[in-house]
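User: Can you model how zinc ion sits in this protein?
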Amino acid sequence: MDAQRSVRRQISCVGIGLHSGNKVNLTLKPAPADFGVRFRRTDLGDHEVPATAQNLGGIQLATGLASNEVAVETVEHLLAALVSVGIDNLIVELNSPEVPIMDGSAAPFIYLIHEAGVKRLQTPRKYLKIVRPIAISRGDKRIALFPSDHFKVTYSISYDHPLLRHQSRTVRITEESFADEIAPARTFTFLKDVEKLRQNGLALGGSLENAIVLGETGVLNNALRFEDEFVRHKILDAIGDLALIGYPVIGHLVAHRAGHALHTAFAVKILEETHAWRLVEAPVDIATPAAVGLPAHGVAARLAN
Ligand SMILES: [Zn+2]
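Assistant: Here's the modeled complex, given as structure tokens:
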């Protein structure tokens, strides 16, 4: 049985909110099977905000959730870490509206989950298996899911900047490939946008400690963690945003120049398109006729660095 998971014991960390600049305490606590992931605002009477597409709130530069006017912001990096490690059920306590930004990547959350330990529960996990393509686009921004035997992501980006005119990567997402190739990739921003953000009261906690900042010709940080760290971070964001579906996905996600607004609109669309998927209990459903005729491992999913 592919069992649902939670954490073995509770664990806490302290960080700052990227936009508010405020100090935040984050605590991950074990939860029972079929509980899902729920944020709990300890500063607001333990009000809970389940991490589901139904609770999507403000989508500006990060993904926010809201329930009964209680908000939780910048959830995507933590959610990407949870779905990739296979944590289905969890209480995430926060004493502030924002999940701490940590170093701008998902790596500190992977570390935190491993420190807490993973606990297998006695209930099978359900996966959302794509059986027909689903796609949406806005202008030249596109995102789609196609049937596949695995969860893999192909992402491409292009900007009017010498360092990232075009980057593209395909990764078959497993716990290991996510931790090694995607989780360490940091969020990025352009120096020319930073002042604008600050004037609007955003990115007040932002610094070279938690974001890659692109100047006119290069990055202000000392070094990149990967040559194509930018597109890897977009893959991270997409995985975190799609986690709001509530089930791990089995399918091939293909996105071009998308962002949080399109990722989250797509999560809502997927849940509406019930004919395009079904819930299965094992990641590889051998009895599926839909799998026949598809190349099993036709694409070199893990490209060399
Ligand atoms: Zn991000």
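A couple of observations from the model: The mean pLDDT is 91. The CA atoms of residues 269 and 299 lie 27 Å apart.
User: Helpful, thanks.
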